[in-house]
């Protein structure tokens, strides 16, 4: 996965990045308050999104009946995510160009393999500090 910074308005503001040559608008967590990230390839980063609104997984499944897999840009750093659940605890969803952990956890094993529709209110790009959930908690 190659991530390239194209332009940023600064820390915690809008930035345009290329993920394997696909343009994404994200919330910049790579810059610092003192210095904007310059253009070019960025190493050791991860994408994530917070959960601003709760939802039911059963409804998320119903909302993707055609089994779509893609991110659709809405505005700013907001996207509608259509994807396939790869795993639970945490829930990991394949959106085609990217796989993301959803902050809405589930321990329902039947969710794995289902196609879902998830609102991504803010797609974040941050430095990957290497901290992962311990395997025994996955």
List the helices and strands and how they pair.
Elements lengths: L2 E6 L5 E6 L2 E8 L10 E3 L2 E4 L8 H6 L7 E6 L2 E10 L3 E4 L4 E4 L12 E6 L3 E4 L11
Parallel strand pairs: 3-11
Antiparallel strand pairs: 1-2, 1-4, 2-3, 5-11, 6-7, 7-8, 7-10, 8-9
Characteristic key phrases:
138 residues, mainly beta, six-stranded mixed sheet, five-stranded antiparallel sheet, 4% helix, elongated
Order of helices and strands: EEEEEHEEEEEE
Q: Structurally, how many domains make up the residues?
A: 1
- Distance between the terminal alpha carbons, to the nearest Å? 23 Å
- Coarse structural class: mainly beta
What proportion strand? Answer: 35-45%
Oligomeric state, counting identical vs distinct chains = single chain
Number of helices: 1
- Percent in helix: under 10%
Radius of gyration: 15 Å
Q: Specify the biggest β-sheet.
A: 6 strands, mixed
Poorly predicted tracts of residues: none
Give the strand order of the largest sheet, numbering strands 1, 2, ... along the chain. 4-1-2-3-11-5
Mean pLDDT: 93
The number of strands is 11
Shape: elongated
Report on this model:
By secondary structure, this protein is mainly beta. The protein has one domain (3-129). It is 4% helix and 44% strand. The protein is built from one helix and eleven strands, in the order βββββαββββββ. The two termini are 23 Å apart.
Short structural description:
4% of the residues lie in helices and 44% in strands.
């Amino acid at each position: 996965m190659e991530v390239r910074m194209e332009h940023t308005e600064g820390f915690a503001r809008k930035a345009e990045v290329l993920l394997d040559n696909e343009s994404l608008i994200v919330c910049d967590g790579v810059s610092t308050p003192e210095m904007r990230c310059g253009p070019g390839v960025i190493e050791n980063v991860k994408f994530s999104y917070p959960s601003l609104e709760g939802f039911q997984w059963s409804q998320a499944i119903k909302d993707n009946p055609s089994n779509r897999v893609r991110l659709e840009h809405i505005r700013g750093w907001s996207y509608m995510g259509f994807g396939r659940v790869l795993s639970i605890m945490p829930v990991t969803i394949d959106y085609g160009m990217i796989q993301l952990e959803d902050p809405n956890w589930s321990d329902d094993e039947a969710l794995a393999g289902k196609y879902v529709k998830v609102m991504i209110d803010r797609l974040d790009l941050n430095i990957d500090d290497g901290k992962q959930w311990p395997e025994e908690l996955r």
